[in-house]
Amino acid sequence: MTTATGVISGVSVSHRRANVETIEAAGVRDERAAVEALLDREDVCEAFVVETCNRVEAYVVTDDPDRGRAIVASVVEDVPDEAVIDLGHEESLRHLMRVACGLESIVLGEDQILGQLRDAYATARTAGGIGRLFETGIEKALHVGERARAETAINEGVVSLGSAAAELATNEAELANATALVVGAGEMGTLVATALAESVDELLIANRTAANAEHVASTVDVEATALTLDGVAAAVDAADVVVSATGSPDPVFERTMFEAVGETLVVDLAQPRDVPPSAGNRPDVTVCDLDALESVTDETHERRREAAARVETLIDDEFDRLLARYKRQRADEVIGTMYAGAERMKERELARAVSKLETDGLTDDQHAVVESFADTLVNQLLAAPTRSLRDAAEADDWSTINTALQLFDPTFDGDEPADEDELAADEPASEMERAFAAAVYDELDD
């Protein structure tokens, strides 16, 4: 596991600055493979990647921030500069909190992003990309996202892209007595199907795996039929509304599927897109992509503005706690180094002292008292430096911490004897050894 002394560098390409085509171009397709590729880069000790339908983000931990920025920049090198948001260490941490809370989503406060972020975290951990920095930072972001939804009204109303797509369909088409085709039986497709079931007369659910389509069809409160992707072409002919939300890397629909259909509304939620943009060239076919959903969510944004302000305050508080925790971790590393060095020296000097005391004979109980005394002495001597180091970390006094690292050099083992025979040698005792022995005898007499 890495230390807490690295620096996070990140990049984000999202709907904030990029359109659907740009986000699609930045897509990493496979989060785990992307994390592993970042870890293969020299100097990267942690890596995290998250990709959703409206964002692609990559983060690394390096000791050198310039090196980190160069590495994440290579992930989006084919994306126009104006579409990329560069994120430094603290900016990355705050941004991940905002993402988890839904403040960076098309649908303000949407719930789905929290699960997507959690899945990306699990994927990065499996790939070996999660060390102490990301473990602390991402888990804090997930915690803040959960608090935002439990303690504010940020997710009331339209809460996902799926429900926003259903609302768009309601606004753009007459759904009474309509047949709707939903392609994709994952989380997004299930949300769309559930929302559309309240308005349409019939649902067709298509998925690569028939069993998943059948499961979704069995959960909606409307007549529903499950299909495989082989049945999509025929289903398009029968549908008035088509909503596609698959994770396929290739288009699911061919342009020719829409050449002979009647008036049809198509909503493409996939990233990359499932529907060729040219399908919208037909006069009776309207194709809406993720960019079109922003207008649908304006009303939701207005209703949630007050809740968003409360979430921002929550983020500020939790962000300060996170930084304080990182500071404590850095101080604790120095403190651990300090105690490790003291422990080595204590063991050596204890062995020397005991070897001299044993000439007078030590019982097991007396030996235990000597060891306890040595432990207590070390702890009392280091108690004040420990408090000072933690105070220095809280105050961002890194010069004090660096000085402590030099004073308590973990590679320094003191003046070790040449061999074990020296421990038992009957050479004259030093002033320190005589003082230590006297203190031990006092302890034993008590």
Describe the 3D structure.
By secondary structure, the protein is α/β, with parallel strands linked by helices. The protein folds into three domains: 7-155, Glutamyl-tRNA reductase, N-terminal domain (Beta Polymerase, domain 2), CATH 3.30.460.30; 161-296, Rossmann fold, CATH 3.40.50; 334-445, no CATH class. It contains 17 helices and ten strands. A six-stranded parallel sheet has the order 7-6-5-8-9-10, sandwiched between helices. Helix 8 (187-196) links the parallel strand 5 (179-183) and strand 6 (202-207). The longest helix has 53 residues, at 305-357. The model is unreliable at 417-441 (pLDDT under 50).
Largest beta-sheet details: 6 strands, parallel
Summed up, the domain count is 3
Fourth CATH level, the homologous superfamily of the largest domain? Glutamyl-tRNA reductase, N-terminal domain
Mean pLDDT rating:
83
Spatial gap, N to C terminus:
45 Å
Strand content: 5-15%
Q: How many E strands? A: 10
Total number of helical segments? 17
Radius of gyration: 31 Å
The spatial strand order of the largest sheet comes to: 7-6-5-8-9-10
- Low-pLDDT sequence parts: 417-441
What is the succession of H and E elements?
EHHEEHEHHHHEHEHEHEEEHHHHHHH
Q: Sum up the overall morphology in one term.
A: elongated
The helix/strand class is: alpha/beta
Q: What is the CATH topology assignment of the largest domain?
A: Beta Polymerase, domain 2
Helicity range:
40-55%
CATH class assignment of the largest domain: Alpha Beta
From the 3D coordinates, which CATH architecture of the largest domain would you assign? 2-Layer Sandwich
